[in-house]
Design a protein that fits this description.
Blueprint (H helix, E strand, L loop, with lengths): L1 E3 L5 E3 H23 L3 H11 L7 H7 L7 H11 L3 H6 L10 H11 L3 H19 L2
Antiparallel strand pairs: 1-2
Length: 135
């Protein structure tokens, strides 16, 4: 689809949109490599969370030059890939992306503790921090 843009310049909006969307596939592939999983493993894990995710979806998205997934599928993919939906769709980093997989696992465990457990963890962390700081 061509449209006259600023300064009378014609632009191909469909091609530009496809170029940006293709980056979603690149981010998915980047995260797959980072986590050391295969595409079939990703597909299987996403299908467990979202049954509408077909086995050939990633291939189809790549063949079409990239596709922005529906929100519910993007959430399932991001959950499996341990990244934020925002990063998956836009590539923009957010605070959550600063954490390693191990740190995210610890945060998840901490959030599952009762108040007494949280106080204990905080006491241990404070004691360790004081040792490091030389107090």
């Amino acid at each position: 689809m061509e449209k006259e843009g600023k300064r009378g310049k014609k632009t191909n909006l469909g091609a530009e949109k496809g170029k940006k969307n293709y980056l979603i596939i690149a981010r998915i592939e980047e995260q797959i490599d980072k986590l050391g999983i295969s595409k079939p493993e990703l597909v299987t894990a996403v299908r467990e969370k979202h049954h509408r995710f077909a086995k050939n979806t990633l291939h189809n998205w790549k063949a079409r030059g990239g596709t922005i997934p529906p929100a519910d599928i993007a959430i399932a993919i991001a959950d499996v890939l341990q990244c934020s939906v925002r990063w998956l769709i836009t590539g923009a980093n957010d605070k959550e992306e600063e954490y390693t997989v191990e740190e995210k696992a610890l945060i998840k465990k901490y959030r599952g503790l009762n108040e007494q457990g949280k106080r204990y963890v905080e006491a241990v962390l404070n004691a360790e921090s004081d040792c490091i700081d030389g107090k």
